[in-house]
Amino acid sequence: MLFNRETDYALRVIKNLHTDIPTSISSLAEGEFISEAIAYKVARKLDKGGLVKSMRGSNGGYMLTRPLTDITLFDVYQIMEPNSFVNECLRGNSNCPVNTGHSPCMIHAEFCRVQNNLNNDLKRRSLADIIAAK
């Protein structure tokens, strides 16, 4: 499982936002060397997901809805990649080719364990902790 590029961009955008001062898309894009179109697309997804809010007007921009200490990699991952799993069979609506129709295959439980461990690891530290550790 790999994070997609959009998730990487989202993390880079978030680290440049504040809870009290709106930041323009052009500033976010310039600060992270990404196009304004990509920064806007990412900011809109984060806005829909509730991690950021947009402020209109000449002094508008995007702001965090909560401090970086309260945001984890898991929060961003869930917004940017809501249907991403370590294996298709974990989606719930996917048909496993090995499934006999009665129960999942013997590897399914292991995929569940791996997915749970990944989710727990992504929840473990806040973005503030991660940024401070660099």
From TrEMBL:
GO terms for cellular component: cytosol. One of its GO terms (molecular function) is DNA-binding transcription factor activity. InterPro entries: TR_Rrf2-type_CS, Tscrpt_reg_Rrf2, WH-like_DNA-bd_sf, WH_DNA-bd_sf. It comes from the Bacteria. Gene3D superfamilies: Winged helix-like DNA-binding domain superfamily/Winged helix DNA-binding domain. This is Rrf2 family transcriptional regulator. The lineage of its organism: Bacteria, Bacillati, Bacillota, Clostridia, Peptostreptococcales.
